[in-house]
């Protein structure tokens, strides 16, 4: 699916510049015949290696050209659902099948063997899973089924090292830390690496107990919206400075009801996960402020 979508963008898209890079990034992430994938603006910023305003402009231009479609606006911690409508059903031509044909229904019946790369080169057959061009900030999948929003890095055999007691860990991640990683993944930070081992996790556990998952996730989203972040170690100095939870505070359980969030305003400069908007301060520098239309703090509901 990925290589077909990539081929369509390369050969048939009329987009240019950053809009074309945004389309190629979406095509590189699709894993279904519907050419749909959930992505956040943080993902586009990472892919284009650009600021939020540049990434937002690229996405908006691709949408205006009709080559990128927003199927579902992001809501809460759920990222927006994008689609490449003109690439649905498209199958790239086989190197031995003659002239290119239009979109086809059903499965491939060509005799060309395994899927080839975007340009049909045979040496790609031995390269493993489908992989498109390497764009700035995009990490190819490594290991079994680690998609673009994998909540944790898949350890390789070469890494080695102790993983701690297996009865209290999941892929080397303590159970007390798992809710934080899940929350950051839902907020669009699933690409963040967590390069901790053994006792190194104690620092994260202590910070969760001190300031809480919500505050740590909100801080990480704000930082990642301003600069490119690859490792969770980058957040630790800022997490240490977060205010402690109030005395007697009890975090809500998964079963406790929460007040409903207001609908997302739909504005392109409003992040659907954090409900923050980017504006310029008096010095012309970008700053993030709560959206007055849909941020919980402006609506009188609990975030």
Structure, explained:
The two termini are 37 Å apart. Strand 4 (169-170) and strand 5 form a beta hairpin. The strands form three sheets. The protein has a three-stranded antiparallel β-sheet with strand order 1-3-2. The chain contains nine helices and seven strands. It has 303 residues and is α+β, with helices and mostly antiparallel strands. The chain has helices at 2-12, 17-29, 41-48, 52-64, 178-189, 201-211, 213-226, 236-240, 296-299, and strands at 36-39, 69-72, 80-83, 169-170, 173-174, 276-280, 286-290. It is globular.
Low-confidence stretches: 96-102, 104-169
Range of helix content: 25-40%
Number of strands: 7
Mean pLDDT: 73
Structural class: alpha+beta
What is the overall silhouette? globular
Approximate strand percentage: 5-15%
Strands ordered across the widest β-sheet: 1-3-2
Short description:
Helix content is 30%, strand content 9%. The strands form three sheets. Strands 1-3-2 form a three-stranded antiparallel sheet. Strands 4-5 form a two-stranded antiparallel sheet.
Search tags:
9% strand, 303 residues, globular, alpha+beta, 30% helix
Write the layout of secondary structure elements.
Layout: H1 2-12, H2 17-29, E1 36-39, H3 41-48, H4 52-64, E2 69-72, E3 80-83, E4 169-170, E5 173-174, H5 178-189, H6 201-211, H7 213-226, H8 236-240, E6 276-280, E7 286-290, H9 296-299
